[in-house]
# Entry
Amino acid sequence: MRRTARPLTGTTGAALAVAAVGLLAAPAYAGEPTGPPAGSLEVYPSSVVPGSHVTVNTAACGDDGTAAGDATAVGSGRFTLAPSTHERDVIGQFRVPPSAQPGTYEIVATCDGSSRRVAGDLVVTLTPDARRTVPRGSVKTGVGGALGPDPVQTAAGVTALAVAAAGGTWLLHRRARGDGI
# Structure
């Protein structure tokens, strides 16, 4: 049974046309990349050990704004955010107490005058990033590897593969000529 193609008419064709125009027009306004959203609190570094200093900043408070910071969740108390050299940013610092326990803590800043509240996360760990263990060397799986620790074994394996490939090619060529095997 043969099916024939029919042109799209009526509401189906109109719906597809509207969807196509919508998809083509959507990326027309991409906006200007501005970094982090204005409603967030940037925490740097975002992962620290107890006793470290932390800097926070935000653009949520507008030009020449100030803010009150709150790090009581981690045990640091309150601090002030003041205008920084970056346009529209307010910046502040606090110290994580040496008695802080590992975990994720919410740091909050409230803009003066507008009572706008922004928050960011701070992760407290017991191991600083610089001293974390990084895996090194090859994986000891019991089956060798091309970049294993012994170059002699690697060379022997490559040689064995080359001999097998040459022998197989020679046998296939001989069989194709009709010499018999």
